[in-house]
Each structure stands twice: as structure tokens, then as C-alpha cells.
Amino acid sequence: MVDVLNVTDLDLECTFEKDLVDALREVVDGSNWQCIGHADEYLDKHCSVLYAINEDPTERNDNIAIFSVGTKGTLYAIDTVCPHEGGPLELGDIEDLDGSPVLYCPWHHYDFNLKTGKSSTGLEQQTHELRIVDNKLYINADVKLSRSPRSLSSETEQTPEVFPLNMKVNSQPSKVHQFCNDSLCEWAVKILNTADPDEKINLTYQVANRWETGDINHVGQCSPPDQPCRIENLKVVSAGKTKRLGKAGSLGSRISLIHSLANIEQWAIDLSWDIIARFSGTTQNNGQALPKDFFSDFVKVAKDEAKHYKMLSSRLKTLGSQFGDLPVHNGLWESAQETSHSLLSRLAIVHMVHEARGLDVHPKTYRRFLNSGDQETAELLEVLYKDEITHVAAGIKWFSFLCESTVPPLDKIPVFHELVRKHFRGYLKPPFDTAGRKQAGMTEADSKT
């Protein structure tokens, strides 16, 4: 929240008051304070976005939204990326709750108090202190901010992380580096390039079964596409334009929630095949390739996610809808792009953060469907939940393997924390599904950064 001190109202001939103003200016001149323009420009707009500029291209960019709330225009500053699943908080609605302004994420309606950043869900978002001096607005933030987004031409290419793993990744889409007829990676790329979700599922089942029986026995190497294909009539919108999901109290709300979950599961299928193809050429620093079990584990994950999508899609049809009836967003794929240069980062963010957060929100979602009388969907969610525990476990297993097989071994907890700070746009805060996380092999230290 902003504190207003109008310097022009002070009698600068008074030594005490002059010293006070000078002291304030010294604070403003500190390393974390920066002037972001005239206060009136922010007071006159409902929301203004400040864009983070990092000199290190491997650092994530956490933009900041400044909201002007109420008839008197009280200013609040909060990071824009929702710590739940990355939704754009700058597009959220603000409501007064017991005298406090509460911001609601447009994706899943998570609430955040603009004064404290705290949410009733247990999550917490970063807020920033503001000051007005001589009608100029100052913000206390540890990143350099701009009022305009950086142009693509000014951005440098992302460099690999400094970890002792030799990553061999080609960003050119769908080009076969080492042609091996009927290889796992060739099929992975084919599935990623398959737009129709039903065909994607059928191919996933076929390839998974052939891999499990040994009919496909070579991994191969291929570069995946920059982004998986989607059907033409699927309406993909910016994150803030998706329909508010609600709390499963009505049929429309339940359909929205199931449709959103189906969208996530389709991306999860692609994430599984992408990790197989993208990191197929990864070698450990001892020169050894990734074990075959690595690929087997993520083939199983892909098969599970295909099963999940099929169940959710079928449930939508039972309720009188179908996948594609509602707009979808591709926010989850941003994590894939953010971690495309590093297998350690991919495992940490997608499987040890996003998949684990899926466990955390399950109890509440399950109760919502149960309380609405939708026993069938609640039971379906239980199936998904049990499978997702094994997916988190797979991420932990291979993250630990890579850390332990490095010479000298890496301490996996601080490495995990560092990767989360770099690549996850949010904060790992409770409530956690302690039982599910423990079953997956996560420790309490894994949940804190």
C-alpha cells in the first residue's frame, strides 16, 4: 500500500522537517527504491504493469502490477504471476472483503489480499512497498523495472544453467538428428505434432504398449517442436480471458472445472513426450547416457496422462459438453519453454512443483464435487490423484539420480531451491498435501524455498 508524503506541504525552512525530507530521499535513493513515474498516471488507471528487466537472461522476469483501488485511489503493488499455476493477476478482479482489497486470479479464482499478499488458500504472493514524494511514485523492488516490455530484439538468447551436466539440445523443430527407424523419440515427436487429442491418445497408448513389450527398443534422438499442435477450432486465449471456473456448485461450473482439467492433462501428455525427445541426447558428466529406465518412467507418465484426458473428456460428454466447447490457455507450456535448456530444471519445476501443487489442490477440488452431489467426477479425480503421486515420484527419482551421479555429487535440496527461485513464478507456500507428497517421496525441505 502507498504512503503519501507531499514534500511541497512541508516548511523546508524548518530544520527538523528538512532533515526528515532528506532522510526520506536517502531511503528512496537506496538500492531497492526506484522512481516509476508520476503518481497521477497510476492513480488514474485501474491497473498498470511494470516489466522486470534482468541482466541475467537465465533469471525469470517477475512483472509487477500496480492497482488503484477505491474512489480515493489507494495504490497497491503485487507480483503479476499467480503462485498457484502462473495465472495473470493483473487481469484479476478486486473485491472488498471485510474492509480489505482482495484480488482474485482469473484462472482459478485464488484470492490474494493486496495489503499482505496472503491468500485464504495458504499461498502468499509478493507485494511491494510504494511511496509518493513530490507527486512521483517510488517502489521498493529488487529488480529493475520498466514501464514498457522489452522488445524481442533486445533479449539475449537464454544460456544453459551452470550445472555439470552436458545438455545437447537442438531448438529446431522436428528434425531427426540420428535416424533410427521406429525409435521412441521419432514417435514422441509425431505425437507432439498430432493436433487431434483423440488421435494423440491413441498414438500414446500404441507407442507405450510397444515400448513396454520391447517392440520399440531404441530411444533415438529427435528435436521436438517448439510447441505441440492443437486442433484448429480450439479457441486458445490469453490466460485472463478464460471463463471463471467457480466452485463446482452448478452444472456449468463443474463443466468448466472438468474442461480446465482436461486441458491440463492434454498438456501433460505433451510434456511427457517432450521430456523424452528433448533430453534424449543428454549425457551425464561421466559420459554415460540416461538409463533406459528414465524413458520407461516417462512413457508410463504419458500413458497415465492420456488415460486421464480420456476419462475427463468422456465425463464432459456425459454432462452434455465436450472438450473444445470452452476457451483454453497454454500457460502450463510456459514452464516447458522456461526449462527447455535443462533437464534438472524441467524435473524440478514441472514434476516437483507443478505436479506436486496438483496434489495440494486435490482435496479441495474433490470435496467441491462431492458436496455438489457429483460422486462420479469425485471418484474420477481420486484415480487421477493416485497416478499423479507416481508422477511426482518419477520427477524426484530422476532429479535425485542426476544430482547423485554428478562428480562431485550435488546437494539436491539447495539445487532444487535455486532452480525454483530461478524458474518458478511464485512461492511454495502451504497448504501442502502432506500425505500425498510423503507418499511420492517429497520431504518437508522440498516444500520450502
From TrEMBL:
Record InterPro entries: DUF455, Ferritin-like_SF, Rieske_2Fe-2S, Rieske_2Fe-2S_sf, Sol_Rieske_ferrdox_dom
SUPFAM superfamilies: Ferritin-like, ISP domain
Pfam families associated with the record: DUF455 (PF04305), Rieske_4 (PF22543)
Molecular function terms from GO: 2 iron, 2 sulfur cluster binding; metal ion binding
Keywords of this entry: 2Fe-2S, Iron, Iron-sulfur, Metal-binding
Stretches assigned to the Rieske domain: 33-139
Name of this chain's protein: Rieske domain-containing protein
Species whose genome carries this gene: Exaiptasia diaphana
